[in-house]
Amino acid sequence: MPRIRQADVDEVKSRTNIADIVGERVALKSAGVGSLKGLCPFHDEKSPSFHVRPQVGYYRCFGCGESGDVYSFLREIDHVSFTEAVERLAARIGYTLHYEDGGAAPETSGRARLYAANTAAAEFFRSQLLSPDAEAGRRFLGERGFDAGAASHFGVGFAPRGWDGMLKALSAQGFTREELSTAGLVSTGQRGVYDRFRGRLVWPIRDVSGQTIGFGARKLFDDDQGPKYLNTPETPIYKKAQVLYGLDLAKRDISRGDPRRVVVVEGYTDVMACHLAGLTTAIATCGTAFGTEHIKVLRRVMGDDNAAGEVVFTFDGDEAGQKAALRAFSEDDRFKAQTFVAVAPDGLDPCDLRLQRGDAAVRTLMDAKVPMFEFAIDRKLAGFDLATVEGRVGALRAAAPIVAEIKDPLLRPGYERVLARRLGMDPAEVHDVVRRAGRGAAPRTEQPVRDEPAIEGASIALVTLASLPRTAQVALERDALMGVLQYGHQVDQDLLARALGHPMRTPGLEAVREAIASASDRTRAGWATEAVNAVREPFRSLGGELLMMPFPARDESGAVASATDLCRRLIVRALDDEKNELLGAVQRVPADSDGGRALRVRLRDIDIERQRFAES
């Protein structure tokens, strides 16, 4: 693969705000001057420990230790090569890259070709929706209340009934059969290679950044022997357990909502109906049940670190819909947000509800939501005759384990009272049965949360801020290096160079200082990240912490002023050290000698310099 010129790599990075890229996957909140934080996308956690500093173009998780710049973020989160990461960001900002063999080169790397193939297929399907053969598809949409504008907004298209219409169209654009097969766009049978989607209405499925990664297709014709819905198979870029349809459109309103609310529906048309009715935070799974990986994705987008958010599951009122709700309940405690179930009147799904009763009915569906635990309890009770003593006892035994699984010590007594009211039984008796059910129930399996990075084969302990001695001098060095890494590009460079010219007294901080002092240009974008990467082990993690920890200041101008003052204090300290050494030397050198006179001159100059730095 051609190598991208380093100047272009640096230019693309300098023009890209890392917070914009990370913010497409993670809900970021302010964490002090110049710092943002959110739930880490690299490991499961309950409280945010993932920090981003847009000004220095760097991220770091203090839980699992992952860190790096915007390129490393894309490489880790999307599993792309370095070249692909640069090319993707360059395309995003409209920057033309140049390669070392001269001129611009087309993107030919594997995953990028899969993204490109899916994008080309989406455009092909959209264009086909306007063809005469797509009348059945347009009629399907119209009968469900979706006009051409709605189809365009969601990118809905039509796959022709022919054997290889898309295959020919994309082959003409330069895609190979191997690429189209890997992307899940074609299949191979006895008659050769053919389109996977034929004679179907097609919805593009996009990742959270808006890139098309696959498709969901609905059968339109009676002679189609395939399933009602057909999805893209598992590919290097499409993992159905991690994909949520509509999240690319919903993420902005999810992160800005008050409260932050996600509406989980069952199908593509339900998502469309909700969005068009004003519930713009609706999403759906793609050919699979709502599961743990979906929860992880949603928690990051929501910034799910407290109980203020809401996750509302809307399901059909039939038995299958109720089972879907109970499956979601089994994963409920992975959310910190409150979870609810909303079932429309007469068991209508959101699409039918909008079609029969209008947009307002879809919006008011949220008013009918009930807490997930209450819904689960009611489903259990529905199987018993509560008019009989035997029925009430059986219902209590069936529902008690649900209440026993509630971990919140304030919520559980409340639901014990709810269950007691439903059954018309003594709350004390219900409490006793719930308590016994809790002792006998097998605990739910919790996903482990990694608090520290695992370092395979490590024999030297990493040095971190927490391991540093707690003295005034260590605090001065720590804060000064923190200020230099975060705001050094705005500090007078001559002053900065002089401050960095003196060794630190703490070994770990001295290793960081050496890397900073070796940086050739401390004003260019990305210099601090490169300096941290240059810190020798086992002190590199310490450098990352200094780059990412919140710097104590009210605003950016205050932070620059504080960093400047800390540099002056390092210089004053160095002058004091030199003065103490010279005072000892003066005692050993004759006062009237050349050496004695030179020492006294230097002592006078030190006092003048010290006063200048101390007063400025």
Topology:
Blueprint: H1 6-15, H2 18-23, E1 29-30, E2 36-38, E3 50-53, E4 58-61, E5 67-68, H3 70-78, H4 82-93, H5 110-128, H6 135-143, H7 148-154, E6 157-159, H8 165-171, H9 177-182, E7 186-189, E8 192-195, E9 200-206, E10 212-219, E11 229-231, E12 244-245, H10 247-256, E13 261-265, H11 268-277, E14 282-285, H12 292-302, E15 310-314, H13 319-330, E16 338-342, H14 350-357, H15 359-364, E17 370-371, H16 372-381, H17 389-404, H18 411-423, H19 427-440, H20 472-487, H21 493-500, H22 507-517, H23 527-533, H24 540-548, H25 556-586, H26 594-615
Parallel strand pairs: 13-14, 13-15, 15-16
Antiparallel strand pairs: 1-2, 2-3, 3-4, 4-5, 6-9, 7-8, 9-10, 10-11, 12-14, 16-17
Helix pairs in contact: 1-4, 3-4, 11-14, 13-16, 16-17, 16-18, 17-18, 17-19, 18-19, 20-22, 20-25, 21-25, 23-24, 25-26
Describe this structure in words.
- The protein has 616 residues and is of the alpha+beta class.
- The protein has a 6-stranded mixed sheet with strand order 12-14-13-15-16-17, sandwiched between helices. It has a 5-stranded antiparallel sheet with strand order 1-2-3-4-5, sandwiched between helices.
- The relative contact order is 0.08.
Could you tell me the mean pLDDT?
86
Main sheet attributes: strand count, strand direction, barrel closure = 6 strands, mixed
Helix content: 40-55%
Oligomer kind: single chain
User: Any idea what the shape is?
Assistant: flat
Q: How would you write the strand order of the largest sheet? A: 12-14-13-15-16-17
Give the radius of gyration.
Answer: 31 Å
| Helical stretch tally | 26
Class from helix and strand fractions? alpha+beta
